[in-house]
């Protein structure tokens, strides 16, 4: 069975589907931070210093770990940006 077919089958289970979507949202946040940091020309360490956190925290967020809105706001502001949250 191909992976896409397997995922489609598994997503019929409401618990699996909820977890799958949640992980996808965390990944989207991680990728968005990575791209914003790269576009700003900053290393993880440089961004961490500006945001008054550690490089390890930036790395964890970019891997998809949970993070507070306050921490994301501080990181966004450190890049001269604002944090925007949307619902689809």
TrEMBL record:
CDD domains, alphabetized: HTH_XRE (cd00093)
Domain spans labelled HTH cro/C1-type: 33-87
PROSITE patterns in the record: HTH_CROC1
Pfam families: HTH_3 (PF01381)
GO molecular function: DNA binding
SUPFAM superfamilies: lambda repressor-like DNA-binding domains
Protein name: HTH cro/C1-type domain-containing protein
């Amino acid at each position: 069975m191909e992976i896409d077919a397997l995922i489609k089958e598994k997503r019929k289970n409401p618990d699996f589907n909820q977890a799958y979507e949640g992980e996808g949202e965390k990944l989207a946040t991680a990728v968005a931070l990575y791209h914003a940091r790269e576009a700003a020309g900053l290393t993880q360490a440089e961004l961490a210093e500006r945001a008054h956190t550690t490089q390890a925290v930036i790395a964890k967020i970019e891997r998809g770990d949970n993070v507070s809105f306050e921490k994301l706001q501080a990181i966004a502001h450190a890049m001269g940006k604002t944090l925007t949250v949307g619902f689809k």
